[in-house]
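Example 134, ligand FE2/S2 (inorganic) cluster.
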Amino acid sequence: MAYSEKLLDHYENPRNVGSFDKNESTVGTGLVGAPACGDVMKLQIRVSAEGIIEDAKFKTFGCGSAIASSSLITEWVKGKTIAEAGAIKNSQIAEELALPPVKIHCSILAEDAIKAAISDYNTKNGKAAAEAAE
Ligand code: FES
Ligand code: FES
């Protein structure tokens, strides 16, 4: 299978690997698993008082496409509002990384993880869960 250069770059030099303290009120944590393969992705955001995502980190126990998808999405969400970040579609990730069809679910994991992180942040901060929905 031929992987794109962007995918290999994010896989070999993943951005924003790490974690924040999940108990901080400014941090939202999303932990999701892929039923298709059992891989697990943890994605965290740190949100400013103005509702801007200032920083993002991930830890992914999974395949190269899952690692690349999470690396890419942490880059994309920085500087975005939580509403903008919640609107990112897995198809955009799959397109950017040129994921082959069998690896599409890896990008879905990243979309699910950012949505879960936003919903965790909203819950913690007493915001309506609807804000995180599509
Ligand atoms: Fe899970 Fe890719 S199948 S590592
Ligand atoms: Fe399952 Fe990539 S997340 S193969």
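Summary: Helices lie at 5-12, 64-77, 82-86, 90-97, 104-124.
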